[in-house]
Structure formats: structure tokens, C-alpha cells
Write a structure and sequence with these properties.
The complex is a heterodimer of chains A (427) and B (261).
Chain A (H helix, E strand, L loop, with lengths): L2 H6 L17 H22 L4 E4 L5 H7 L2 E3 L1 H10 L3 H10 L8 H10 L16 E5 L5 H13 L3 E4 L11 H22 L5 H23 L11 H12 L4 H20 L10 E6 L7 H10 L2 E6 L1 H5 L5 H8 L9 H14 L4 E7 L3 H5 L1 H12 L3 E6 L9 H25 L1
Helix pairs in contact in A: 2-10, 2-11, 3-9, 4-6, 5-6, 6-7, 8-14, 9-11, 12-18, 15-17
Chain B lengths: L4 E7 L4 E7 L3 E8 L7 H13 L6 E7 L12 E2 L2 H12 L5 E5 L4 E7 L2 E7 L8 H11 L6 H6 L12 H14 L3 H23 L5 E4 L6 H11 L3 E2 L7 H15 L1
Parallel strand pairs in B: 1-4, 4-5, 6-9, 9-10
Antiparallel strand pairs in B: 1-2, 2-3, 6-7, 7-8
The chains are: A alpha/beta (427), B alpha/beta (261).
Amino acid sequence: MAENEKATAAAPEAAPVKKAPKPVSPGTQALRDVVTKVYAAAWDAKKAGRPVGWSSSKFPCEIAEALGLAVVYPENQAAGIGAQHDGQRMCESAESLGFDPDICGYARISLAYSAGVETTNESRRVPMPDFVLCCNNICNCMTKWYENIARMHNIPLIMIDVPYNNEVTVSDSQVAYIRGQFDDAIKQMEKIAGVKFDEKKFEQACANANRTAKAWLTVCDYLQYKPAPMSGFDLFNHMADVVTARGKVETAEAFELLASELEQHVKNGTSTAPFPEQYRVMFEGIPCWPNLRTLFKPLKANGVNVTAVVYAPAFGFVYNGLDEMARAYCKAPNSVCIEQGVDWREGICRENKVDGVLVHYNRSCKPWSGYMAEMQRRFTKDLGVPCAGFDGDQADPRNFNEAQYETRVQGLVEAMEENKKQKEARA
Amino acid sequence: MNNIYTMGIDVGSTASKCLILKDGSEIVAKSLVDVGAGTSGPTRAIAEVLEAAGMKKEDMAFILATGYGRNSLDDIADHQMSELSCHAKGAFFLFPDVHTVIDIGGQDVKILEIENGVMVNFAMNDKCAAGTGRFLDVMARVLEVKVEDLADLGAQSTKNVEISSTCTVFAESEVISQLAKGSDKRDIIHGIHKSVASRVVGLANRIGVRDAVVMTGGVAQNGGVVSALQEALGHPIHTSPLTQYNGALGAALFAWQKATK
């Protein structure tokens, strides 16, 4: 983009950088290292004069992996920036550029970054893009978000359109529509990479992605144990790997290592959760990254463990071949119908034995939050558990209120307690 | 056998309420101070209720705090609970056949589903004060009337005036423009009551409404809102003269349970 445009992206004073994190297990460290390497590889590519891409989280990463293209993920970047308390400043910067405060917080952070506003979160600094990869299965706002980035930098946008599916099954015509776009994306990306698409490398990337998905599901399944060997909140952090590095063998290995640690915890009857588990809930939606500590505090105080998150089925897809891959990429939280969405969630609620549901009405994500009132009604009816909803935002802290959240969590805990007492009395 | 006295304190966003209960069944004294969390309200309400009962804090077997400011009373309260459970408890004490509680407080709206006296589910307003007590305070100020006179004035309405905005700020502008057009204050007030009702109905239907429906909180004292809500819901609504003390009553009942378990 032009220098004079960068100058218009003036930002308010930056938030302070956070202190170093606490020591973690080898599995968790390995997962962190994978993400660090993804960011480092992008900088290495840029320095070496090779192109760098910015990609949406559920664009088929296997293609870029097979072509050896360095790719980073603005959603992960924005979550990291939000978690390090630099989200509001970045959002406000985007608003100063003319982007509406009602659009997604991730989009605003990414657009501000794209326009030249630097973040205080050094670990989430990325080189400017030479191309963008957009798949709108996860988000509708994404199309315009990526079009804006492409226009700011005058770079190619490789678009894969996954229409919202009104039915539970994916039809063959949908698969053909998406498969055609995959083939086209491959041709465009071959030009960017300057190499021919190598089937063997692609098969390897697919094998890695499948292995990662299976290991991710295995890790998620450990939350079925009662008590769970970990805090389900940890899964939110591990999402970074599923988003940024599904197609890498190191990711699969790191998840397998984490799974073996969890297995050991189950055998020992121990848990990495920093409190004894009294209640188990599904946390619906993306967490409020800027308010993680605040989200966690009343849960910890009341012994509430998050043992179910929709990310398990949403990112744990296993496939064989390009057509199956096209079918798999049709299924993301915002591209499936409400029946499928309810089915996913109720499935993990049952398997992971939840006592209640905590629903984040995420102001950043209207498609996701819009149908939550109806989903909440169905959860209560079908599962017989209380549900509590709270307002918040995945990246913009201005949309979250701590006192309101605490009251809702306390109300949920009290309803779960009564429910438990009644069940015990009936037994 | 000695009597057991318990105290419930409900520190809301706009008022502090206290209630002392004897043996979990008889209301001994109550107090209300018109300022809430973060003010002198809670301390004053506690002093007033103790004085009215002729008792000391030490006479209380258990003190339970609820409401928005519940966590600021660690030095006096033995335990804190959410206002959700306390309103459910209070409403069940006053109306044993209750299945739905609609509580409109200073800055939030709660819909509680009650089964055998226990709250099994709930819904609350989002991060917006439309349809709450604060909304009515703002409207009363613009109309230059007392909030306690809204019900009587609204009842004298002869014409429908639509207040369509759900946002407090925009509704205020709408009221101002109605005044500028020469609309009768009484008709505007009736429109305001209907606007509160329509917002609450949307929330109530998320949970499902079952008789008996009980309305609690300060706004339940406004008969105009109650009748507009009754009409919009299609269910009769029960209220009590103790409506503003309902949260404190529930807290005192829970306190009694804890003192005697």
C-alpha cells in the first residue's frame, strides 16, 4: 500500500507488553513451538524474497503446504493481539480508517495491521502479504475483509466460496462446485509459488492434516473423563495449532505428545486443571481473548471446568482425496444449518457429560451468535441442562462487562447445583 | 427454643434493600435506600433494618448478600448468591404456584423459569439498558414527571403513541420529538410502557412463559408496565407489595436455609 495511506493509520498509544508465561508441559511447549515456527517461517520467506500469504483459518492449508508457500493466519494473529490486550487499540485504529465498529474484531485488528499499525504483541507480528487465501466457510465477513487487504496491497486474492448449507448432508453438486474452486486455486497458487503442484507433496500434506485432526480429536476426547485430566480452556490455546499448522507433521506429533501426557494424567488420577472439578460445562463460541483471566476467574472459583467446545468437531475433520476434502471443508461452524450445529454440540455435551452450557453472544460474530438463542432453547429442552448467555467479544474488550458475566456464571452454577440435587434426590 | 433471625441484603444498581426474617417465615423488618452498589446505600440500609428490628448484627444467625453489589459486602455477609436464585426463592415464598418470574431491576431484566420453587433456567437482557428501570427513570426525567406517577398518568391515555426505539438514548429523542409535535404526555407514557413490555416479551419467550407469572423488582410497582406486559404476554401477572424487597427476601430465606442445615 502507499506510504501516505500508512500515515493515516495513526494509532493511539500502545498497550504495555505482557510478562513471560508460566512453564508448561512438553506437549504444550511443542504445540507453542509449532506456532512460533509458522510465524518465523513467514519472516524467513519474506527475507529470502519468497512470497508470503495471509490465510483464513479454514482455507485448505494442504495446497499451500504442498507448494511450499509460507502462510500466516490473521485470525490467530488477531486472537493473540487481543489476548495481549492490544485489541482495542487496533480496533480503534481500524475505526479511524473508516471500518465500522460493528464488524468483526478480528477483521478490524487485521485490517489495521494490514494498513500499517504495528502491534505491541511481538510474537504476532507478521510480514505484509503478497497474496491472500480466503475461504468463507468459517465467516461471511471474511470475504470483504480479505478483499480489503488485497486492495490495500494490490495483491491476488484466491477465493473459495462455500455456500451456507441448508441441509445436513453435503450434496454432490456442492462438492463439485468447491472442487472446481480447489482446482482453480491450485493453478493460481502455482503461479505465485513459481513451482508445479506436486501430487506426492500434496498427499503428504493431506496425510499430515488427517493425522493432526485425529490427534486433535484424541486430545479433545480426554475431556470425556470425569474428572477431566485438563482444563478445557486449554483447548482454546491449542486451537492456534489447528488453525495455523494442520498440514505439518510437527503439529500431529505435538498433539500426540499432549495426548500421551493426558493419558498419564488419567492413569494417575491427576489433572492440569488448577482446581477440583465440581461442574462441567460446554463453552459455546470463541472466548473473549482480551478477558481470558476474567472469564476463567468465576469458573475456577466455582469449580466449573469447560469440558466441551464446538471446535472439537469443527476442526477435527478427516478425509481421503480431493473430493472428500471439498466435502470436509463444507463443514464449519458458520456454514452448516442449525440442525447440524445443534447435533455437533449436543453430541459433545452428552459424550463429555456437561451439567450446563455457557453461551458467549459474541458481538464480533453475528452469524454465530444470531442463532444461539434458538440453540440455547434446544440445549435446555434436549439435554435438560441450564444454559446461561453473556455478551462479549472475541477481540474488542469494549463489548464485555465483567459484573454482568459474573452474575450469569453464578446464576448458572446455582441452577446446576439445584439440578444436581434434584437428580440425586430422584436417584 | 430461641428464634433464628436471618438477614438478606440486596444491593442493586439503583437501590439497596435489606430484610430480616424470623425463623424463615416471618418478616420482622425491612429497609430501602435509594442508592445502590458503590454508595453509602448498603451500609445505611443495613443500619436502618437493624434499627427497625431493634436488633444488632450479632443477633443474625446468617447474613446473605445478593445483587449487583453483593461481592462488596465481604465484611458483613456470610455468603453471596446471585440475584437470580434469590428472586426465584422470594417469588416462590410469596406465590407458591409460580413458574415464571419477570424481574425488572435498575439495569437488567431477568426471566426465570421455576420448577418446584427452584430456578432451572434463566435469560437476561444483553448489554443494553433498554426496558429496565433506568430506561423509565430517563423517560420520566425527559417528561418532567416523577417516576412513581408514570402508572397513573399512563392509565389516562386515550390515544396510541408508538415509541419504537429499543435504545434508551434513541427512545429519549423519540419522546422529545413527540413532545415537540404536541403529543399528550399521558399517551407518550402509555407508549413507553408498551415499548418496555414488547422488549421484555421477546426475552421471556426465549425461556417460555408458564402460569403463574410473577413480576418482581422496582418496575413491578408501575401498574402501567404490568398491564402492558400482561396484554403482550397473554398471561395474568401477579405482583406483591413486597416486590422491591423480593431479592432481599429470597436472600434472607437462603440465609435461613444455611443457618439451619
